[in-house]
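The authors assume throughout that readers already know how a fold can be written as discrete tokens. What matters is that the chain and its backbone geometry are given together, residue for residue. A single example would do more here than another paragraph of explanation. For illustration, here is how one protein appears when written out as sequence plus structure tokens.
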Amino acid sequence: MDHEETRITLRLPADLHAWLTAQAKANRRSLPAELVHRLERDRPATPVDAESP
């Protein structure tokens, strides 16, 4: 895994934020760690074309 990081601002509906926060707590992770875990778990195994939108 590449350890280079990029900061983003993310707006979430309040109910989704509450659910993700609860999931993070249940999994003993921070909210950012929970988001990264879920994105890495669900992203395709094949590389995506960097020029695709």
About this structure: Residues 20 and 31 are 7 Å apart (CA to CA). The helical segments are 14-26, 31-42. The mean pLDDT is 89.
